Amino acid sequence: MNDTITAISTALGPSAISIIRVSGTDAIEIVNKIFKGKDLKKQESHTIHYGHIVENDKIIDEVLVSIMKAPKTFTKEDVVEINTHGGIATTNKVLELLLLNGARLADPGEFSKRAFLNGRIDLVEADGIMNLIEAKTQTARELSINQLSGKVSNLITDLRDKLVQIIANIEVNIDYPEYEDIENLTNDKIKKDIEQFQKDLLTIIKESEDGKIISEGLKVAIIGRPNVGKSSLLNNLLEEEKAIVTDIEGTTRDIVEGNLSISGIPVTIIDTAGIRKTSNIVEKIGVDKSLNTIDKADLIIYMLNNNEPISKEDIDIYNKIKDKKHIIVINKIDLENKLTIPKEIKNYINISILKNTGIDEIKTTIINMFNLGNLHTKDLTYLSSARSISLLKKSFTYIENAINNININTPIDIVEIELRNAWETLGEIIGQTYSEELIDELFSRFCLGK
């Protein structure tokens, strides 16, 4: 991080202004080489200066330049931001001059990466930045702000503090058993403390899964055999003709998506190709995509046809989705009933897309299944990224192992290893421990000038 980086921080295109950001030891000096106005090297921190960007004696643009000196900046390095008139040619020309005078083009997310590596933000706050940029709803924005403010990081820090107290008590008893004033730890006492910690951790996991829904929305896949009404249901839910609907089996051969809002939560509805054995190469590709979608979706809407007997393919599809969150929908109840419901299917919704019957019940079931109606009223101080939630669950597994070891009277130092693994895993969430590959992958998701 000894070099100076630069990138365009605003969307490139016609606009009122564009901002080009520069960060690093030589940021002020590099900008000063192409700035005609006050000597930027002599100006106070956190000041704005009027002038022109020039190439030799040729004026490129009239600008305002903001000077922010380390360490009171986002990256904790010297930072300069050049406010130019918006436009592709002008913005790119200013960027070109900065590169010619010693700056390096920043990698995606490199400003935020430097902020993390210099201790300005942790990984939860970095997630908050990305989520704030991508927020589609007011609730998602509020969730992101709490992550960015450090409230969520404090939640994880408090968890780690509780766990380290338990670990410290164990270590004192192991290392100094001769001291009479040290509380004598029994397995029952340790177990009680660990179980309380486990309860607190489980609460955060559940709330964080809600946070993921707020931040990312829900992906709902409609699956079933051909011609059961999947595309028609998609169109009905979206209230638009998004997918082509015909009586010909196999009409849908690729993934068709649409977006709607249910209780203020963004929901992506995915219409898939009908699942059946086929010799048609193109249709087979669509079927394979449908099967892959099952793994990626948060919820499966599995459609059956009331006017057809149950088939082996229907049962095979059900077996693929029964362990995921799913809703069974039986369509075409306006036609003669030829469907015998298998005994393993306990709950289902009867609908007729043609008669517009039962559709609202699908939406109500989604709201109840994911508790969408209550998400907006909760304290939004929790995690929301898949990475963070997976680490919470990994930590929970270590805690479970510790409790199981106590139950079978495993030596206390073995129990401590599990607790320490849980503590270190929680540290990965906020970046107390990390690998270089992880950091590169995380920040590569950011836009170029962030």
Quick summary of this structure?
The protein has 450 residues and is α/β, with parallel strands linked by helices.
What spatial order of strands do you see in the largest sheet? 3-4-5-6-2-1-7
Can you give the mean pLDDT?
Answer: 83
User: Would you identify the CATH H-level superfamily of the largest domain?
Assistant: P-loop containing nucleotide triphosphate hydrolases
Structural Rg: 29 Å
SS elements, strand count: 13
**Relative strand content:** 15-25%
Attribute tags:
6-stranded mixed β-sheet, 3 domains, 15 helices, 7-stranded mixed β-sheet, Four Helix Bundle (Hemerythrin (Met), subunit A), flat, Gyrase A, domain 2, Rossmann fold, alpha/beta, 450 residues
Give the topology.
Elements: E1 5-8, E2 17-23, H1 27-33, E3 35-36, E4 47-55, E5 58-68, E6 79-85, H2 88-100, E7 104-105, H3 110-117, H4 123-134, H5 138-149, H6 151-175, H7 187-216, E8 218-223, H8 230-238, E9 256-262, E10 265-271, H9 281-296, E11 299-305, H10 312-321, E12 326-331, E13 349-350, H11 359-369, H12 372-375, H13 386-407, H14 412-430, H15 436-443
Parallel strand pairs: 1-7, 8-10, 8-11, 11-12, 12-13
Antiparallel strand pairs: 1-2, 2-6, 3-4, 4-5, 5-6, 9-10
Helix pairs in contact: 4-5, 5-7, 6-7, 6-14, 7-13, 13-14
